[in-house]
Write a structure and sequence with these properties.
- The chain is α/β, with parallel strands linked by helices.
- The protein has three domains: about 10-85, Orthogonal Bundle (Arc Repressor Mutant, subunit A), CATH 1.10.10.10; about 90-160 and about 260-289, Periplasmic binding protein-like II (D-Maltodextrin-Binding Protein, domain 2); about 165-255, D-Maltodextrin-Binding Protein, domain 2, CATH 3.40.190.
- The chain contains eleven helices and twelve strands.
- The strands form three sheets. A five-stranded mixed β-sheet has the order 4-3-5-12-6. Strands 9-8-10-7-11 form a five-stranded mixed β-sheet. A two-stranded antiparallel sheet has the order 1-2.
- A hairpin with a 2-residue loop joins strand 1 (about 50-55) and strand 2 (about 60).
- The radius of gyration is 22 Å and the shape is elongated.
Length: about 290
């Protein structure tokens, strides 16, 4: 560690890294935006490393910044937990998170053990639903929502990840379809349609969509499972298929950019600390892995 490193700059860096925005970090810390920017510049100078790329519409962590933040976030969480333990305020606390069912099944649930390890003092209650929970009345603390982030003005909304949609099938289905899928012709294929009914958005990429047979399911996770089971071609956000693509259970045929859509963290002001200090750092760390 540099002898000139100011430890007080680390919470400022943590807030800026979570929000990827100096203004929002300043609001959280009750500082001015210029003060936050100055602290970050001093920290980068002290470390001799660039932590952020300054972009026209915000910030992006550099690779060094991502590595540094993953360690600093854990350290600050440990300090916070130790403080609550020594002051007698340490207790199990329940946090209710509303998420789309397919996001829960394909992304969140496989990572819950890591959340418990990172935050043993919190009990996470997952409420999987397609309905938009009322975060003021339904007993839900925080939500992860899919879309363009246009929500109730009384709620805060932070971007988590883009929503690139891809068409996927099993390697076996791809091999059996052969040359026909080489041409992206799905005339004789089974298209798996979920509640989003998104196949029409791929009309410019595939031939024969209107004539293809359909298998209907009500959740994207079921569509993905059907594709893994050699039953046809499914559409899914890349994020939800990433593990199955990496494991070789699925292959991607083509994709569409997110077009401004994505997954967002949504919460009321009363849950700001839990959202920004607990959920947001953990979610972004997992998404960057």
């Amino acid at each position: 560690m540099s002898s000139h490193l100011r430890l007080g700059a680390l919470p400022v860096f943590d807030a800026a890294a979570r929000h990827l925005n100096f203004r929002l970090a300043a609001e959280e810390l009750s500082l001015t935006q210029s003060a936050v920017a100055q602290r970050i510049r001093e920290l980068e100078t002290s470390l001799g490393v660039k932590l952020f790329d300054r972009l026209p519409r915000g910030l992006a962590l550099t690779m060094a910044g991502r590595r540094f933040h993953s360690r600093i976030a854990r350290a600050l969480s440990d300090i916070d937990q130790a403080t609550r333990e020594v002051t007698g305020s340490h207790k199990n606390t329940t946090l209710t998170l509303s998420v789309p069912p397919s996001f829960a099944a394909k992304w969140l649930i496989p990572r819950l053990a890591e959340f418990r390890q990172a935050h043993p003092e919190w009990r996470l209650r997952v409420h999987a639903t397609e309905s938009l929970a009322n975060l003021h009345q339904d007993g839900v603390d925080i939500a992860i929502r899919q879309g363009r982030g246009q929500h109730d003005n009384s709620l805060r909304c932070l971007w988590l990840s883009g929503l690139e949609r891809i068409a996927v099938c099993s390697p076996r289905y791809r091999e059996e379809a052969g040359e026909q899928l080489d041409r992206l012709d799905v005339t004789d294929c089974m298209l798996i349609e979920d509640a989003h009914q998104g196949w029409h958005t791929f009309a410019a990429h595939f031939e024969g969509i209107d004539n293809a047979e359909r298998l209907w399911v009500n959740h994207t996770s079921l569509a993905v499972d059907a594709a893994i089971a050699d039953q046809g071609i499914a559409l899914t956000p890349r994020l939800l298929a990433a593990q199955d693509l990496a494991n070789g259970n699925l292959v991607a045929l083509c994709g569409l950019p997110d077009q401004g859509e994505g997954f967002h963290l949504v919460y009321p002001e009363a849950r700001r600390r839990q959202a920004e200090k607990i959920m947001l750092p953990w979610l972004r760390m997992q998404l960057n892995d």
